[in-house]
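Most newcomers find our protein records easier to grasp once they have seen one. Sequence and backbone structure share a record, each on its own labelled line. Nothing more is needed to start thinking about how sequence determines fold. As an example, a complete record with its sequence and its structure tokens follows.
=====
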Amino acid sequence: MSDHSSWYNGLPSVEEADALFIDRAKWFSKLAPILGREEYEGKYTLCLVHRHVKLEQGERMVAIGLTTAPEKVPPSDIDVTVCPSAWTAAGRPFEWQRVDAPEQRVPAPPPELLEDFAKIAGENSVLGLSSAVGLELAEGEIWWESIDYPQRRHILQSAPRERPELPAQRFLETCWAPTRTHSPSMAAEVVDVLQCCVICPSSIHHPCEN
């Protein structure tokens, strides 16, 4: 963990990650069936591997509830209430979350999922996996992410996709959940869609991010 902060600081910004993720329909069609397998249903989402803030030496990003902020890593790093919640395609964690009890720890993606995912996306892809546990949404809503740069934290809030009350600025999709659809030509539902579940504001006008 000693080099995690410098590695994390080298991740692309949300704008850079968004620009790298091209041909999205192609990637969605290839990855949706994998994430939609019965054994993974409701556990993982597709995400952009990116950073919002700069970490100081010995820190990592940890979510407590819907707020994610830097925390110092304990010397022994055996805190059983903190577990990874987002991973690169190679399986390296880049965000964590704090749980109330060890039994609530989010399971890491199994090796077979990471292997299948990396075969398609590539281990150095800007695409990764994040935990979907505890982030269920009401119909018609989406997670909106706001960034508090002075406090180095980002906060999730569920709200309708259309929010005319917000100031005009660029919003970027950063996370997608597998969605079941029903085809008239098929006898059962199939997972063939990755639907956006998190939107993040562009940080281009926030010098504190750099």
